[in-house]
Amino acid sequence: xxxxxxxxxxxxxxxxxxxxxxxxxxxxxxxxxxxxxxxxxxxxxxxxxxxxxxxxxxxxxxxxxxxxxxxxxxxxxxxxxxxxxxxxxxxxxxxxxxxxxxxxxxxxxxxxxxxxxxxxxxxxxxxxxxxxxxxxxxxxxxxxxxxxxxxxxxxxxxxxxxxxxxxxxxxxxxxxxxxxxxxxxxxxxxxxxxxxxxxxxxxxxxxxxxxxxxxxxxxxxxxxxxxxxxxxxxxxxxxxxxxxxxxxxxxxxxxxxxxxxxxxxxxxxxxxxxxxxxxxxxxxxxxxxxxxxxxxxxxxxxxxxxxxxxxxxxxxxxxxxxxxxxxxxxxxxxxxxxxxxxxxxxxxxxxxxxxxxxxxxxxxxxxxxxxxxxxxxxxxxxxxxxxxxxxxxxxxxxxxxxxxxxxxxxxxxxxxxxxxxxxxxxxxxxxxxxxxxxxxxxxxxxxxxxxxxxxxxxxxxxxxxxxxxxxxxxxxxxxxxxxxxxxxxxxxxxxxxxxxxxxxxxxxxxxxxxxxxxxxxxxxxxxxxxxxxxxxxxxxxxxxxxxxxxxxxxxxxxxxxxxxxxxxxxxxxxxxxxxxxxxxxxxxxxxxxxxxxxxxxxxxxxxxxxxxxxxxxxxxxxxxxxxxxxxxxxxxxxxxxxxxxxxxxxxxxxxxxxxxxxxxxxxxxxxxxxxxxxxxxxxxxxxxxxxxxxxxxxxxxxxxxxxxxxxxxxxxxxxxxxxxxxxxxxxxxxxxxxxxxxxxxxxxxxxxx
Length: 753
Description:
By secondary structure, the protein is mainly beta. It is 7% helix and 30% strand.
């Protein structure tokens, strides 16, 4: 959609329309008046402004009184009916500019037209039609005819449609040698595969069988048309009965779409292999069938395989020099306060943002610029409340990112909120610099200023400090060439660092970065989540006060290297490392890197209730993150609802206003079972994504394991109280349960005839 026209454009359009309309009188053809105005009204439609200019007495449009009404903006997509509802393969409709005309009346909520020609409104449940009869048993449209963990056959359009192939018989193996690969057809899967290897394994390290489903990436419309699901180095134990193992024990992989469970083979140019995982890559400007689905993967574990793979690599006697720390060329305008966790319990109440036209956003990242908070992984709970008192409104999202309320469609209804966090600190022990548990030979450095400035002098609260050789204070490169390194002798969980300056001279490090390694061969910078640069930790402001900086996430490392970035007078350091013994009990063989451990996602058990779920919302657009995404996995983490195969319909609406995506005026909104709700902010310029919520229609009769429970609670939609509208404000007119946007013609074109 193009931007709303400016006042200059409106003035120009008004003059041209006035000229054409008044010109109709000179030729004696007054009928052209309506045509002239309609032409300019359509131009407004293209710009996203819908003018209700026809009246019963002025250029009326003759609509059927019983089933139609005049609309200045009718979507080009067909009205939902039983045929479109029951067609699982109907193409996604791409809307062009809407046109004026006679619109069919909207069916009440939960009902649709019988067909494109039969305009009788019927409940969606009544759309079930007899599909076919097999051996005397009648199957309705969409009924499952047969299924197991690897295939599903259902009735659709008078045909038996099967996806996948029946599961093969379980394959038995012996535990003496390598187990042969068990191959399962990669096809449509409605649940976790059940084929397992019969060899028993000890819980804690490995369990035979198929793992949970994982989804670490997802495509974003018009921005990232790709989905990459890598093979993890190790999977931890999750639900009872599901497999888990190291990468070397994975013998097969399955890939399917999230929610709809369609196999990756149904989409072109998608690969699924144990070597690379799932890869889907397309053009970022692709739409419709050319866009990548959101995929998930599962792995088959064989515990009889050894977890130790041969490697020609050896642990270096002296760790290799890590790459130069990469930091932004322009430092951040406001350095966040150091993250600490000195005291457990509830923090004070914070309020750093005043509601504006976009909404109310109490972001923890913004709060950290003023106050010192514990890292996200130590935050157990977050509480939000209106400053003026009262409970948290349904339009407010309160989570570990903060409190968010989006003022949608220009409405100002978000209150001023304040938040507090509950910190639960753990793994905060000193690792041995201050108490000499770390010996002198475990501490090394890049250089010394004098023979007395040994690296082992860099112990917290000691009577001396490590000082590097003189560095030009204005040479950024030289500062980053210096470092202080600690060898913990074994891999430990490291959670942060405490720094001090020199005890006798006004010399200290003002900002620094941290690099870590498990073997000394491969180094990583400590970064913020999803950041491409090393995190710049705020250091000391004087020579004696200890400053604690906790990492954004705990790391497992043997080697820890502190790299100064900015300093006062000279680079002098006294330090302590915070952490605890590694929770990993497996000791790697020489030359073998400890694997990255990936923990399966666990969700609440699904509970099916026939009918529509409540409205659900897991994400609110906010500064720095104006997209809106509510996918099936994030919804399952917060809410309890039916299984994906029981979802028969999906609806989305603007929070607080009840506007459908089409009526909201926002562009490119995705709302379906596979993607969930997705709004790309890049498409909404100069505005931002509104906050949307989503709900599902569940049919529990498709379940073979869960009892159906009939919901008796009516569904309610939160609406805002109506307010007086001026000529500069959008106006909303209800047509049953459908909202449309109108601008009265006299507010834009003041034409006098």
